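Give me the fold.
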Amino acid sequence: MSRDAEKTADSADKQALLSALTIDRDALADDRGRALKWFVLIALVAGVGFVLWFLEFPDDSELVTVRTAIARAASSVPSGASVLDATGYVVARRQATVSAKITGKVIEVFIEEGVVVQKGQLLAQLDDSIPQAQLELAQAQLRAAIASLQEIEVQRKQAQLDLDRTQGLAERNLASQADLDRDELSVEAVIARLERAHQDIMVFERGVAVQRQMVADMQIRAPFAGIVVAKSAQPGEMISPLSAGGGFTRTGICTIVDMDSLEVEVDVNESYINRVSAKQRVQVTLNAYPDDHFPAEVIAIIPTADRNKATVRVRVALLEMDQRVLPDMGVRVAFLDEHAEVEAESTPTGVIVPDAAIAADDVGKFVYVVDGQRIARRSVTTGPGEGTRVRVLSGLNKGERIVTDLSEELLVSLVDGGRVAVLN
């Protein structure tokens, strides 16, 4: 092929490539149109969704702000049925100030006041550098004793072989009785050393166990499950069960209280102790919550009197635990007579709510029950009032949250099924 023909072919190929790179204006316009349609469709869907969301979840600033209260279980014990009233305190039967077995420096404390801890949980770490070094030393001594035992075992085998040879020679009158006795004593001596080595290993094993316990004692753990009510030590301080070192040494890490062991202790005047008996029903009222009553019963009457105060101590068990009951709280106790149980069985229990949570109209009395941010109107039947609270006999369950402080202005703003902003 000539050179001119080659140039012509190259020009044709380049022209074909340039033609392939040409932009199709019509196809580009179609692609832009489809993209614009999709964009408009997505924008419409997003706009409709936003409108629906705004209608369903309006701005919180436009919501009615309400305060709420919890419907509490009402005591079935009628008021005025007590044969004796007294005062006392809430005490914990299971309470401990956790300390260390030995004097040490606090490296880290893992708890704070109010923290719930489980049995065996790590509370604090003491400096264990010396106990760790002693543990490593005891482990090294144990390994050395094991190596010595293996060496003595080899010596025992050698002594037994020497004894076997001497016995063979003695049977052929080629060894004296002195040689035989010497080899027998050598075997017994090696066996005695072997037994001593076994005892040494046992001693070192127990030494390792003691050192491991010393290291474990550097970790202070919770003796039982409860709540931390006081934190006594900080990292860097010295701690000792005997307070060695005076005021610069702490005697404990923290104080733990088992809230399930709370009970009430009452000092009853000995002139009226005849009105109290074991298993007697009791009504307990906390000074902090004078409108709430807690059912209880007498656990025991301590069989001794205080001559200075002329009182006898009585232990009272709370039948229903409540998180509001705290150690050392002051209480009022009403000891009930025997026929209080019969009256209690016929007395409706219901729940106790603030009287400001009850409203009334032409239909009857009602409350607003809060579920999340929604409220629902519910008709109720009420019983006798108890101070600033009312007993609700029906229509409301224990633990339900209701709107309180129902003023006329607030009632106008509330709608059945509407949304509210809860303050508490």
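The two ends are 97 Å apart (CA to CA).
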